[in-house]
Amino acid sequence: MTTLSPLANNTILITRGANEVEAMSSLISHYGGTAMHVPLLSFQYNKDTNESTYLTRLDQYDWIIFTSKNGVDFFFQRLESYGESLRDFKGKIAAVGEKTKEVLHTYGIDVSFVPEKFTAEDFSEEFQSQLDSVKSVLIPKGNLARDVIASQLTSQKVKCDEWIIYNTVLPSESKHRLRDTLLQSTVNFITFTSSSTVRHFMQVVKEYNLERRIEGIPIACIGPIAKRTASEFGLHVNICPKVYTVEGMIEDIVQYVKEHKEEEK
Fold first, then answer.
1. Separate counts of helices (H) and strands (E) for the chain
2. What functional role does this protein have (predicted)?
3. What is the C-alpha separation between 17 and 38, in angstroms, rounded?
4. Which whole-number Å values give the CA distances from 264 to 145, 220, 251, 257, 258, in the listed order?
5. Taking each helix axis from N to C terminus, what angle separates 195-207 and 224-232, rounded to the nearest 10 degrees?
6. Cβ within 8 Å of residue 103, ≥6 positions away
7. Where a domain ends, among 148, 169, 190?
């Protein structure tokens, strides 16, 4: 059996959280590359003062909209801690992205709506078709998630409760790991799977004056929002897939390597 090795001799830096790295690392290895992981995201439960209200009044919501896998996991953890369930929930469930939908399925939850494109802007636009008779929506989300969906729904006279269910933080031990990685290792690609990974990466780069160490390293962003954040920090993004998934991003990195090898011939 022939081994696929278009990423041979390429080290790809993964900056996403520790609990999300396995599939991405495996895909890089599948293509013959070396995955180097420095987790720049960690997720912690956030005690929202309205938590008990949201959970005990779930039956009043027409929709629950999940914007991330972490939002799903923390939601069901809190649901269990209150002895509640979605067994009697009469509303519908929406997910911003196939990965979020897949996690919901692991909890036995059917998803009624997933946008074709996985950004808050696309969700807000496509969700217009679902707004007939919708009066109240709950959005469990992280502290750094944008309010695009809530703002759009509110403008449509829909009552929208944003439940900040978790906080996104930079793991303290990762600051030195990233510094040492950029100083001591050869990194061929830097990948960002969210705006938060970009911000935390640049926080470390600026703190340790590592700007020159990242010059010329191709940068891949999973989608347009992360790309925009990277551009705001002055980073040049070389790769941004049309399909906003890890698979799409790695496949575009493979294509990028192939094209540059052809140019060198």
1. 10, 9
2. Catalyzes cyclization of the linear tetrapyrrole, hydroxymethylbilane, to the macrocyclic uroporphyrinogen III.
3. 8
4. 42, 21, 20, 11, 10
5. 20
6. 69, 72, 73
7. 169
Q: What pLDDT, in 10s, does the model give residues 217-235?
A: 999 999 999 999 999 999 9
CA neighbor of 191 nearest in space, from 220, 215, 211: 220
- CATH code of the domain covering residue 152: 3.40.50.10090
User: Are residues 43 and 142 in contact, defined by beta-carbon separation less than 8 angstroms?
Assistant: yes
Cα–Cα nearest to 223, from 198, 240, 206, 202: 240
Q: Render pLDDT for 80-122 as a digit per residue (tens, 0 to 9).
A: 999 988 988 999 999 988 889 999 999 999 999 998 876 778 8
Q: Which domain holds residue 227?
A: 11-41+170-264
The answer to whether the beta carbons of residues 196 and 167 sit under 8 Å apart is no
Q: Between β-strands 189-192 and 219-221, what pairing exists: parallel, antiparallel or unpaired? A: parallel
